[in-house]
Amino acid sequence: MPQAKQKLVIIGMGDTGVLCAVRLSRQFDVTAITTKTSLVSGQELGMRLTNPAWWRKHYKISLQRYRRLQGVRLVHGRAESIDIVSQHVEVQLAYGEASSVPYDYLLIASGASNGFWRNDRISSDDEIEAGIETNAERLRNARKIDVVGGGPSAVSVALNTARQFPESTVALHFSGQKLLRGYHALTQDYYAHALEQAGVKVHPNRRALLADHQIDQLGSGQLTFGDGAVVESDAIVWAIGRMRPHSDFLPDELLDEQGFVVTDLTLQVSGQNNLFAIGDVAATDPLRSSARNWAYRVLAHNLGRCAKGKEPNRMFRPPSHRWGSVVGPQDDGLRIHSQSGGIQRLTRRLVDRLLLPLVVRRIIYRGVD
Ligand SMILES: Cc1cc2nc3c(=O)[nH]c(=O)nc-3n(C[C@H](O)[C@H](O)[C@H](O)COP(=O)(O)OP(=O)(O)OC[C@H]3O[C@@H](n4cnc5c(N)ncnc54)[C@H](O)[C@@H]3O)c2cc1C
């Protein structure tokens, strides 16, 4: 009689949960606990707000459309707690009841919130659609747009809004001296120049005062700064990179002081042979960069070995600088910034006809119907 497959439970089906699931669904009996019934990517916030039709097509995809998820049990709900002794996850289901899901291996891929566009709430597809539309419309109708933050999300929103809505006034406020901390100096300079060219008013060394609830919505009204200055705005986008890990369902012993999951280079949770973590919830390196940098390959390989009774033997080695696209595809193509500050530009035609359908959907995600 063939041996039963081991049970793998994945918590969170965002960018990394799906990337791992499509690689492990044949070897394991996979159950995925997911607050959303689609992959709602955190990528390309600027495009999501300024070109929601394009963004939806590429970054909000029903989980049922992924070919390699066909045999995966999708549980629409939220993990509420785990018991690492009895190896169970307690789940609040989307429609009221609770359920207990057993596992042999557990993968934590629950991400983090860093603004209104990412959360750990149970949501229907209709609610997500409505949110995307409402926010895009609010920005489209705003005459004065203020973006707060100096990281890639903030730069992406400021540059895309300035280019798409040239009749609006766009300002970018951030507390540091330089934009894009963690990127190479050449990349930082490139975007300082691009923002200026697009007419964005860039205000470095300017700390905006934040009320707790504000970060979770695209607001409007008064924006107050530490130096006492106040501006009136039609749309305020908070993108200050304040990461709040989605980890309240995990025992404290698995978490660091900020609530991120402590992992080894193998992407195993430290001290736990059958728990793995990846993506924004995982404290893999100072930039917590395992959602990028091909970490899903390391994880799938190591988990696969564990299931065969072997030791994990691949290590996640993050780069020293951030790299990749910052603002998404523009009319003149997609710029990919290397760790050493170099730029590779792919034409829009190449992105829309080859990169996204063939490389991303067919090769990286192993087929999307
Ligand atoms: C090219 C590129 C561009 C990017 N641009 C941006 C950008 O503009 N803005 C930005 O913010 N980031 C951006 N990023 C970062 C990227 O979005 C994140 O690093 C990535 O989404 C993290 O993936 P994740 O799987 O860790 O988390 P997520 O994709 O956030 O997925 C986590 C999922 O788990 C769910 N979940 C949470 N808690 C539970 C629970 N208890 N039970 C069940 N499910 C749960 C969440 O609701 C969510 O669906 C970019 C990355 C790249 C590569």
Number of domains: 2
Number of helices: 8
Beta-strand proportion: 15-25%
> How large is the radius of gyration?
21 Å
Q: Could you spell the SSE succession in H and E letters? A: EHEEHHEEEEEEHEHEHEEEEEEEHEEH
Short description:
With 369 residues, this protein is an alpha/beta fold. The chain has 2 domains: 7-124 and 243-319 and 349-364, 3-Layer(bba) Sandwich (FAD/NAD(P)-binding domain), CATH 3.50.50; 141-238, FAD/NAD(P)-binding domain (3-Layer(bba) Sandwich), CATH 3.50.50.60.
Describe this structure in words.
The protein is α/β, with parallel strands linked by helices and 369 residues long. It folds into 2 domains: 7-124 and 243-319 and 349-364, FAD/NAD(P)-binding domain (3-Layer(bba) Sandwich); 141-238, FAD/NAD(P)-binding domain (3-Layer(bba) Sandwich). The protein has helices at residues 15-24, 45-50, 52-59, 125-141, 152-164, 185-197, 295-307, 348-364, and strands at 7-11, 29-34, 38-40, 60-62, 73-83, 88-93, 98-102, 105-108, 112-113, 144-148, 169-173, 201-203, 219-224, 230-238, 244-245, 261-262, 275-277, 282-283, 334-337, 343-346. A 7-stranded mixed sheet has the order 7-6-5-2-1-8-17, covered by helices on one side. The relative contact order is 0.15. Bound molecules: flavin-adenine dinucleotide. Flavin-adenine dinucleotide (FAD) binds at residues 11-12, 14-17, 33-36, 41-45, 78-79, 109-111, 114, 118, 120, 152-153, 156, 246, 249, 279-281, 291-292, 324-325. Flavin-adenine dinucleotide binds next to helix 1, strand 2, strand 5 and helix 5.
